[in-house]
Protein 1
Amino acid sequence: MTMKQLSVYVENKPGTLAEITGILGENGIDMCALSVADTERYGILRLIVNNPQKAEDALKAAGFKVSLTDVIAIAVSHKPGGLAGALKYVAQAGVTVEYMYAFVSPKADTAYVILRVQDNEKAIAALQQGGIPIVCGEEVYGK
Amino acid sequence: MERYWNPVETAPLHELRALQSLRLSQTVRHVYEHVPFYRKKFDEMGIKPEDIQSIDDISKLPFTYKQDLRDNYPYGLFAVPVEDLVRIHASSGTTGKQTVVGYTQNDIDIWGNCCGRALTAAGGDASDFVHVSYGYGLFTGGLGLHAGAEEIHATVIPVSSGNTKRQIQIFKDFGSTILCCTPSYALFLGESLREMGIDKSEISLKAGVFGAEPWSEEMRHKIEELLGIKAYDIYGLSEVMGPGVAFECSEQTGMHVNEDHFYPEIIDPDTGEVLPEGEVGELVFTCITKEALPLIRYRTRDIASLSREKCSCGRTLIKMKKPSGRTDDMLIIRGVNVFPSQVEAVLLELGDTAPHYMLIVDRVDNLDTLEIQVEMKEDMEFDAVRLVEETEAKIKAAVASTLGISAKVTLLPPKSLARSEGKAVHVIDKRKI
């Protein structure tokens, strides 16, 4: 029920993001969502791509610190309170959210949210019980 | 008028040499009889205690290395039964184990006398308030100068290190006249004084005795200007005794070695050959009066030179130049001895990182800083900032508890540190001392 997120350690120096996205482009990798955590010294680039394994191999070959992280993707209704309605189930289950990011789906009334939580199984069970749709790779990539 | 604490400081050379010869032969007998390590070494080399009659015979004796202290950890090189010991001190060793040193009451008394000579040379007497900001504890700095101040019947203010505002408050309120600490901390205190808007005329300091780390003439002038004092250098190492092995006089062109207790030699670190006076090499000391831990020809790894040129202060004790470097990779950071191998041992023990690291040493606002850059393991999870920060905090805590020094820890991606083709480079020292 989880999907793979590509995580890349990005040193704070000019051109690093351009280099990473360039490599992904050359390898025909399509990005459908991304988020960056930035600290004083480094950033962490998190990507949802159509071919995570290929993307990981390409970036590793170029010398980047990359890993695939299991995350949960959920579909929530694109209206006020839509996300809150889903997150309350995660909260009720006592699961901590490390980080999350959202993007709008091609279906106009739905938004996708990527959740990185401390306990995937517990969060998935809680979300399913609350009737929140958990989406799989193809649906998110949209192709 | 120059004052001396002990008449030996101005003794004629022939008297000094006679004293050294006598003491060396006694010490050699003492260690031969009481330290199996030395008995074995002497036997292997065919040396009998009676072969050592004069101080000139010292070159027949074997060297002692820091490794020997480690191999005989903790008390294996002690030459007296435990009931004669009154004190233990320790300093960081090259790996996890500390270097342990012991003292009899007589050793402590001699130590106090040596530090008393240093304080007297810095103009100290019974009317002074000696403010000791060296750390008290296993480190020899605090208690060594403390003993020296008591020796000359001055009033000791045993502040120990840290809490700069309180130190300055004590300067003002208690009337400290002589400050003892590391030179970098003296500089920091001077800067802090200025930042707090206190004029140096509001404090009574007149002199400082600074050691335990390298410092330059520029630093001396800066400290003297900021605190309104005369700054004196002091040298020592716990294996030999602690601070007070050598001390500076008013001439400030080197430190007089208390050679009636610690016989100095300069050797070629590669061949072990004794070098003539004036040449630069590794400083070696033999403790000729110590009872508990009389080390024979101890290799300090400090690079210096000796000179018997006549000194304007009237002391005849030989002078050593301020050490200009080390023959090993030891770093002195805020007065604490740090070997890269100690940091490596901590990293390996934790096992959270790859075995590739770099120590970046710098001096920011007059205080030494240490940054440990270390590579992440290939499989380390890093997608949340918390995961990286937790690992860094764990290493920081382990380094603080093992080495007693605060460091900034920076995780780097794998393969980001340059790989050396020859001997690995683990230190970048950016300090301009």
Protein 2
Amino acid sequence: MIVPITMPRWGLTMTEGTVVEWHVQPGASVGAGQMLLDIETTKITNTLEAAEAGVLRRHVAEVGQTLPCGALIAVMAPPETPDAEIDAYVGSFVITEVADAGGAAEVEPKTAAVGDLTLNYLRAGAGAAVVFIHGFGGDLSGWALVQTPLASAFDTIALDLPGHGKSSKRVPHADVAGLAGELAAFLDAIGVQRAHLVGHSLGGAVALAFALAHPQRAASLSLLAPAGLGREINAGYIRNFIRAERRKDVEANLRQLFCNPDLVNRALAEDVIRYKRLDGVRQSLEALEGAFLSGEQQATVLRERLAEVQAPVLVIWGREDRIVPPAQGQGLPANVQVEWLERSGHMPQVEAADKVVALLKRHFAKAA
Amino acid sequence: MQLSRDKLVEAYRKMATIRAFEERVGAESVKGAIPGFVHLYAGEEAAAVGVCMHLGDKDWIGSTHRGHGHCIAKGCSVEAMMVEIYGKAGGLCGGKGGSMHIADLHMGMLGANGIVGGGPPLAVGAALSAKTLKTGAVSVAFLGDGASNQGTTAEAMNMAVVLKVPAVFVIENNGYGEATAVGYHCGAGDISARTAAFGMPAEKVEDGTDFFAVYEAAGRALRHAREEGMPAAVEIVCARQGGHYTGDPQPYRSKDELEQVKKNDPLVRFRKRVTGEGLVSAADLDQVDREVAALIERAVQKAAAAPLPAVEELTTDVYVSY
Amino acid sequence: MAKKSIRAAVNDALKLEMRRDPTVILIGEDVAGGAGGSGVQDAWGGVLGVTKGLYKEFGPGRVIDTPITESAIIGVAAGAAVSGLRPVAELMFVDFMGVCFDQIFNQAAKFRYMFGGKARTPMVIRSMMGAGFRAAAQHSQSLHALFTHIPGLKVVMPSNAYDAKGLLIQAIRDDDPVIFLEHKAIYDLEDEVPDEAYTIPFGEANILREGDDVTIVAISRMVHVAMDAAKRLAAAGIQATVIDPRTTSPLDEDSILESVEETGHLVVVDEANPRCSFATDVAALVADRAFGALKGPIKLVTAPHSPVPFAPNLEDAYIPNAAKVEAAVRATLAARELATA
């Protein structure tokens, strides 16, 4: 049986990808989950893993080639399958629409008026509500690899926090409690009463603060590399994020986010630079910095209150996190389930998206 | 004539200050204490002061090659001017501008100008600011008979009429563009008539050594600018007492002409009239002269003693940020 | 985020800044384009329609048509800039700067220095540049070197719509006089341009691609010529770094030097005439500060030392193209091969 390997659609905005490097040569056997190749998108370089075990028979796409999502990039088949059959398969392959969960690919971001702020969000799928809250300097697109697969079973909502993405570039309430308040007002504005909350880094602290302030509104809590569980933090990352201007400096700073620093490509750095050039961003980030940091440490620590959270709590932490020390994930109260990810840095939703999706699905099921 | 006694004394003090300043600058320049060359305003005091007596701090003036008189009349610091002309630190422009680029934007002084005809477009720009920002200010472009022939002047005059801005062109016709006489260099012969052809009221003050004549004509032009928001012009026929620059022996001017200039000294005429009419006593004017002399002496002492700009200043102030 | 042309991006930048800051005015020939006529008062919106629509929103007090008197336009803008406004003067074609050069380089550029640091002259002079329109010698020049030479001026030359908007907003907010040169042959090039206001700092190069073999520095329209050449070279296995300095004053010297330190080869592509030009300036910079890194001669791809011709075949021959850039790259690389053979 011939198994096609096609250009994946990582996230709602991806339309094409470029082959950067093959990790497996034709003729080699691969196991499920083994790295096949690196693919560069406009956002990030990522690794495509084999969905099942088999033998890689043919590279259809060469290094440097850019192909649309759904295009054939390799062929897997048993050793006994004749080359002629593979040739015929490659020759007759037609791109079909990539399976995109819940039609999420056609979903356009919307905006909600929250007080005098306009907040941008991307909502896809149907089912129980899942709300994604990004971290300092991020935006909703950072959830793309996680939101897309979850949208097949959930009403997924990723928002841009005030001062971020395409939301208003003002942060009137820059501390964790203030941001949690904005989150509550946002959910009111879009008519979501109760949701699974998924927060990353600063967004994790915001999710936690929200769950503490509104226990009845949190169906579950999932914290990825969260802030708010200890004093220590890589404050230099935050300060450099705000102040680095040259692309080299921005790239070097962003590399701290990942276990594999090669994941930071020029497009990602350029996106960050372009975001920082927008009117109001500098002031927004400085306001967040001022409220979030106290000297070189985190100003708000909610660790002691984790035990109060009634909903199930999942913490996901990359062992190689260089922004928030993974040690802060140790010794948490018994109501918290902690999952450690090897070879993952501060961005597990990017570096280990598949695992994060699986963990979240399990966690949501448990909560339900 | 509507000037109070205080105003008359102020006008005299300004004119006397210009005269004393210029005579001293000339002397110090000849001695070699002042670098470069200077173009002195002595003899034309009634023009600058007769116009600027109508102006407030928020009004603007653009000046000329021969700009010291305009600076003093508009209220620039005499001491800081002297330090500047000496090329010293602490000068009005930090020693970087010198005589030809003296400016004080805080006093509404857009700068003397090393380029003949450089100033009128700038002054129209300040008038556009006044109109757009509704500050109520007016802007005066001082220019000479030489600059009246420049394209920039013609362009500025037309622009002021087209844009309907409160700009007043004051043409100080001192008879010479450098060494070339107005009868030769001005083809039309009549500068104010040529100016009026742009579509603005233009008056000619035939005797610009008469402070009162200048004051009244300038008053009409400035009133037009302030009240109608439209440009106007005044041509003031006057005379340099010296040459184009300090040390110019002026062989292009006849002895008769130079004697006539001496006789028509605007300060002498002013003194004669106000004392004659009993408006200000001679003693009071003498007292002003003494105060002015002391001021100039202080300015020279300060300038002579001031340090040179630090060499590091060479490359500062090129940009606000770079 | 929408795709916008350079023309639309420039219009967008002007509109946003005029909304944000009431002291920003537009002044120039036909920026409304129809003042005093018997028809509509804003018929043109600039000769190529770049300022179209602004008159309707901001009115004749802020979108000011002038007589065809360049010295007065620039002088008025300079005088307005030191007295409280933030004028954007449009000079139509850069060739016309000859008519008013005194007001630019003796007046506006020097105020701050002559006045001992007390002046701020926040003015922008927008002007169209470049050949390719069959417009001959007085409507087609690339004169950025003249302005780059003058201390006190900043010189900006966007190559794409994203840069055009961010650089123009920066120029308007900048407190120094800025010469902003728009290449008329690339007005319709489109790019992703955010709707919001943003600024791109001056003196920060855009590195469009990175390769180990050669550094190509190009500006304005020539960036696209350089990129075309780089793609051809890549197909032949030669990887070029392409640097768009975006501003010639200030110049991002570090990005150029760092790249040449890595590649050892420099090609500069400039649409201007070759003598005392941006191309020779960058060449001199590298020869002076990175000589030891060079593995082959610096090659310059420029227009010839002649005015811009009218006849289409001559004009096409005048403008640097990708084939010439490719040949220059091969020439400097060949020198290394000769040396090591």
